[in-house]
């Protein structure tokens, strides 16, 4: 079975984000093909995609390597997200569907319930789903793609601390959804900007310990997506 390049791309990106491949480490087609159980063709395509996304860089005499983002690049990334997420919320207020609104309200209910009960282990994933759905509701493919890439990069570059006041954080999510439901684009934009600004303070640059360059094989045909 031929494994598509986008699946290989997702697998390599996940391994970069999780620290399996450290910044500056070489990414040879032969080693990656063996690790994921694929030919070199989809690996080559995946590396080109990851280079365009900023996860991989090509060095003279070394080939493909994991990118090494600077502190300034990491700071710029958070600043860009603080600009783009409010834009997505404003567009969602104009373009959201009933299905988007139903999912957003459901996530807010779950988040508020988990926050009241102190079930912090669920809140990170619920928050990710909330922001992903809000972006999808913008109806802007280019904006959705940018925000998706930024979420991956932020997870790669930063450790995100849990909100000090999760109940208040989810109340802010609820207020954004109320504005989106009413079609109030400017209020949705303003509330999301405030929320993004507060959330930025919980981000800490990730310190990456050295990892072994000997990686176990990954069977791409076993259901990894």
Describe the overall structure.
- 65% of the residues lie in helices and 6% in strands.
- By secondary structure, it is mainly alpha-helical.
- InterPro entries: GntR_C, TF_FadR/GntR_C, Tscrpt_reg_HTH_GntR, WH-like_DNA-bd_sf, WH_DNA-bd_sf.
Short description:
The chain is mainly alpha-helical and 225 residues long. The chain has helices at residues 5-17, 29-36, 40-53, 71-95, 98-117, 120-136, 141-157, 166-182, 185-200; strands at residues 56-59, 63-66, 158-160, 203-205. It comes from Streptomyces virginiae (Streptomyces cinnamonensis).
What is the secondary structure topology, with strand pairs?
Layout lengths: L4 H13 L11 H8 L3 H14 L2 E4 L3 E4 L4 H25 L2 H20 L2 H17 L4 H17 E3 L5 H17 L2 H16 L2 E3 L20
Helix pairs in contact: 1-3, 1-7, 2-3, 4-6, 4-7, 4-8, 4-9, 5-6, 5-8, 8-9
Which structural category fits the helices and strands?
Answer: mainly alpha
The count of strands amounts to 4
Low-confidence stretches: 209-214
User: CA-to-CA gap between the ends?
Assistant: 15 Å
How much helical structure, as a percent, in the residues? 55-70%
Q: What characteristic shape results from the CA principal axes?
A: elongated
Report the C-alpha radius of gyration, rounded.
19 Å
Largest sheet entry:
2 strands, antiparallel
Helical stretch tally: 9
Mean pLDDT: 89
* Spatial order of strands in the largest sheet: 1-2
β-strand percent reads: 5-15%
The H/E string reads HHHEEHHHHEHHE
The quaternary organization reads as single chain
């Amino acid at each position: 079975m031929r494994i598509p390049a986008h699946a290989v791309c997702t697998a390599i990106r996940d391994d970069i984000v999780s620290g399996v491949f450290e910044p500056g480490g070489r990414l040879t087609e032969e080693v990656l093909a063996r690790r994921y159980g694929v030919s070199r063709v989809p690996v080559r395509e995946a590396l080109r995609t990851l280079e365009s996304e900023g996860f991989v860089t090509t060095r003279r005499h070394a080939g493909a390597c994991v990118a090494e983002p600077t502190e300034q690049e990491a700071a710029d990334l958070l600043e860009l997200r603080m600009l783009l997420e409010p834009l997505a919320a404003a567009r969602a207020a104009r373009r959201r569907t009933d299905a988007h609104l139903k999912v957003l309200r459901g996530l807010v209910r779950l988040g508020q319930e988990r926050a009241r009960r102190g079930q912090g282990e669920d809140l990170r994933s619920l928050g990710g789903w909330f922001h992903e759905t809000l972006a999808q509701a913008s109806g802007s493919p280019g904006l959705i793609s940018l925000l998706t890439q930024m979420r991956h990069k932020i997870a790669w570059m930063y450790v995100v601390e849990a909100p000090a006041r999760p109940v208040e954080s989810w109340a802010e999510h609820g207020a954004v959804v109320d504005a989106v439901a009413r079609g109030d684009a400017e209020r949705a934009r303003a509330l999301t900007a405030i929320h993004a600004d507060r959330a930025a303070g919980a981000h800490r640059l990730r310190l990456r310990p050295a990892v072994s360059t000997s990686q176990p094989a990954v069977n791409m045909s076993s259901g990894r997506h």
